[in-house]
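Hello K.,

You asked for the raw outputs rather than the summary table, so here they are, unedited. I folded two proteins back to back in the same session to keep the settings identical. This is the first:
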Amino acid sequence: MSAATQIKVTDTSNEPRIATHREWLAARKDFLTKEKQLTRLRDDLARQRRELPWERVEQNYIFDAPHSRVTLAELFRGKSQLAIYHFMLGPDWPEGCPGCSLAADGFTGSIPHLEQRDVAFAAVSRAPIAQIEEFRKRMGWNFNWVSSLACDFNFDYGVSFSPEQAAAKIPNYNYETAVFTQPEAPGLSVFARKGAEIFHTYSTYGRGLEPLLGVYHLLDWTPVGRGEEGLSMPMSWVRHHDKYENAPAGLPACCDHHK
């Protein structure tokens, strides 16, 4: 990355206290106690999530795939569980959301491991399938990605909005707790199949998607962290992975994951 385009993140507002090894180890062990508390809380939340009720999917959703049309049931690919990422790529967008693309950079390597645990994975966008395929090939991804342009799937699962909804500036996203002023939003929905029946078990939006952003967790371990404090919007530094070399700084983010 050239010096002209690289964004160097520094933070001098909180200079570190330099300690001896003994002092450093004592502070680290004290902080480890808090980390373990968070780990146990996260485990308990995961257990409670698995105990949430399911809702039956009554709609027969049909998606456009590269070579055919497929049903929601066919997206399971023989598995009993299905995770769907709602990727922000609208019908008239020239390319996908950089934030969603950051998440998608980690999908392919996870899929074989998900399949070993009886979980299928797919991404869904409202863009036409030809547009999806063009962008997918550009980014070098090979996960299953279909178009919901011909059905109401993204509207029904709270990630696509009518022009009136997007312009109203009233809570319309993340179970009506946040305002999303664009026609497309990010999300993840999970489904289960029992025989011929399909059930919706869980959906998450906004910052609930952060576990998919592995780079953020790595940044959280560094001294400066995410370095987003001075930005008008979190994730505004994110680019498609093929754009960092020449991307100008300060472009607005296309998604509001901080809400």
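The second followed immediately with the same parameters:
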Amino acid sequence: MDAAKLQSIHISQDQRRRSSGPFWLILLLVLVATGVALYFARPWSEDTRSLKPTQQAAPSATAEKSVPLAKVENKQGDTVLTVSGHIINRQRIEVSPRVMNQVVWIGVKKGDHVKKGQVVVQLDDAEQKARIAEIEGEIAVARVAIERAKVAYARVQKLRATQNDTAEHEDDARLAVASAEAHLQQLEGARATAQVWLEWTVIKSPIDGVVLEKLANPGELVSPQSFGGTRGPSTALVSLGDPNDLQVEIDVNESDLTKVSMDQRCHVSPEAYPDKIYGGVVVEIAPEANRQKGTLQIKVQIEKPDHFLTPELSAKVEFLK
């Protein structure tokens, strides 16, 4: 039974030889296909390698053109001196009263923008108004006196025409009319003076600018001059400045004065905003140096200032060739 089964599964030598033929054929086909693939793949790899240097060289050439090295060097070479200073208002105006008076109202506060002619402070005007009313009454009386003098003069003239009065009386009547008219003119001048004093109680801004500081308060007595001491009345009401008229005030060492001249162009940048750069020009060179510091004061006018520039902040100034 076992021998019969073994005989049935036995493979002869011829069958073994025939079954190994297809295996070698498949192996040969695989080798041929691999060789063909390598043959066609080799030129593409060489082309790819040959293109890489060209592709890498092109960006490097573009990068070299995009870097403004020459501009940076020229900018640095144009700067002959760099000094720090402080931003200031070219004009700082302190508005003061014309006469001693009391503050009734202040319509502005620190930082407010004002227009030229805008009312900023009102002083007490009761005395000035009362004086004007008094003078108006005196003027009315003077006009009545003129009319009386003219009537008297006309009467004397009629009597003089009929030889019933003397020439002396006629001259006195004529001069009385002239005196009354002169008195009226004097009173009108006094009224004009009182009107000016009344106008002085209304304080207006002399410029378009901003309120830098409020120096008085309602109810406070103010005076155009100081009487000394610390308890006297204030001599100013508000301090004004023009935010569009700014300068940089700097002290230049005497060893660097040869690098600075009038009308010299500058670059100004505030320390708080170093990325902001403004044009400037030298407009003032002090006629006298500071002996202790060994410096000379220079002022640079800032062109087209904006809200980034605040007076009394520091700024860097680059003097150009």
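The radius of gyration is 51 Å.

Happy to rerun anything if the numbers look odd on your end.

Regards,
P.
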